[in-house]
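The pair is quoted verbatim underneath.

:::
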Amino acid sequence: MAIERIIPATPIEGELEASVQVEIEGSNGMGTETEDGGMLIDLDPNAFEPNSDFFNNLAEEMDERSLQKLSSELIGQYQGDRDSRGDWEETYIKGLDQLGLKLEDRTLPWPGACGVFHPMLTEAVVRFQSQAITEIFPAAGPVNTKILGRITPEKEQQAGRVQDYMNYLLTDKMTEYRTETEKLLFSLPLAGSAFRKVYYDPNMDRPCAIFVPAEDFIVSYGATDLQMADRATHVMKKNANDVRKLQVSGFYRDVDLPDASPDPDDIRKKYDELTGDRSAYDFDNRYTLLEMMVNLDLEGLEDTDEMGEPTGVALPYVVTIDLSSSTILAIRRNWYEGDETRMMRQHYAHYQYLPGLGFYGFGLVHLIGGLAKSATSLLRQLVDAGTLSNLPGGLKARGLRIKGDDTPIMPGEFRDVDIPGGAIRDNISFLPYKEPSTVLYQLLGNIVEEGRRFTSASDMNVTDMKQEAPVGTTLAILERAMKVMSAIQARLHASMRQEFNILVNVIKDFTSPSYPYEVDPDVEIKMEDFDDRVDVMPVSDPNSATMAQRIMQYQAALQLAQQAPQMYNLPELHRQMLNTLGIHDADKIIPLENDIKPADPVSENMSMINGEPVKAFEYQDQEAHIKVHMAAIQDPELAQMGQNNPQGMELLRAAVEAHIREHLAFLYRNEIEQELGTELPPLGEPLPESIEKRLSSLVADAAEKLLQKHQMEIEQQRIQKQMQD
């Protein structure tokens, strides 16, 4: 019996669409009998199954002539886009030489001359990468959440589940994420731009996020933003086996492709030179694929108006082309199904070190590449000058002969010399080489200091700061020194937020509706959690680039709190300080009121007896809680047991009475709502002036009715008591 399972596809490589037919018996999936007596079995009823027509490979339906014409046009546009950034590539290639990753054997001005590179550029890159990775990727995970709109206990629980799941995904399931992030943070300060591609991989059954270097991502000339670019091309390298897998799965057209021809670009050659990879390009069997996000007006798929007439508006598509054979492998729609505006769907997040004059950002190669080159030149001159000063050369008489003059003289060695006549000093003369110039040495120091200061890579001498200086003064000095890094950190924060939003859409569209682990209250709540009520953001702080800055900020706040402690929520302030310091279990060290969870009245009584804080909640049964608490405080056995500690009993009574007042307040609010016939606005939510006046008038009437109701109840109780007496 044949079954068919459709793997969801998206218009991005790696998100495959496959139709797999196998023979299976005893399946636990849900089955539907077909007209011919067969059975269509759904192996996973909860799996996401998009409209297959919408995600079809449109290239399968087009004729070869149209595909060849489209391919020729797109490849020509790609070549033009690449040529338009030729100066950027040339500058970047020259800047890579200043990293000093390759040992240089120089023959000028003499063989063996100094070939060392000054590490100023490499130091700045390594410092940035090391500092950034610790800020944006802590051990607990890089994702934080923020509730949009009114905060409720349900939304807080939802935000916690979303944060836990995304951190679990990025730290445990997406094993490549940390490594790809490290690569991105190394490339970003060099090139000035780096990209992250986020997509769903059905072969791995999970989202993926890979680093795309700037040299492999080409946009149309004149573009300043990825969202507004007419074209964006990802140049991919895939071996023949991977391409064949994609063809068999149905993601690419199953057409014959010629053998892959090597197409190494200049930047790739420079990378291989720096890393020592000497692989022969003639044996490179990888295909060069162009994955282009482009707006097209395809015949038969035109955008139409209300009358069904073509509008001439180009629509967003993703087109994949084999560059060597100019063969189009796939064309897919690149907007969300059901989106009437048909906005281009984004799969890439753009990271920028310093936004420049065009699409690509400026990196350290552009900013301090000249300084690094000058520092290298000065350093080599100083070393060569020292070499000449220690082992000087000179002039000698033609007839002067020294035994073994082809080897250097060892310490304590004397050699025989044949001279044509006169003293030795009359037959040999040393050139007047000087010691390395102190002026050049000072100039080198100034250049290096300027480069480090520009990149915020210079080490601050903390001992120069006065210990008695106010925290605010120290914080101002530290902030000024880290101003550049703080701005870059803020840009990283914004790009990561964009990346996480793309990941959220992938999770909503292509992953299982259930959490992969047990959650409270329901495992089927995952898709409901990923709605627009919770905003996902990086855990990093865009306002401070280092932990030292954050600690200084909290120290300043603590100093102010000492002057007027009654104005501050000191437990909350100390709790945030512990979290900033990375102290584990800060919630247990300093418990806060917001940490208290709803509990039944008996558990609340137990907590108050043990001296633990309790809290009333709006949705609880207020009358039931009040009855249980009143019974406990009036219990004679409990009172008798507390006679040995009268002070503790008084504290317990005060705590119970205070907690009862919380329930009474909520009970009064509920009764007012019953009189009004509607719910009151949420507690703590600001109201416009007009609404507040109108609401106050209505509440006044309801309060008067409630008062009369209570007075009548009291009077009836008094009459009943008199009748009983």
Observations:
- Residues 177 and 357 are 30 Å apart (CA to CA).
- The two ends are 85 Å apart (CA to CA).
- Confidence is low (pLDDT under 50) at residues 1-11, 13-30, 39-52.
- Residues 564-595 form one domain.
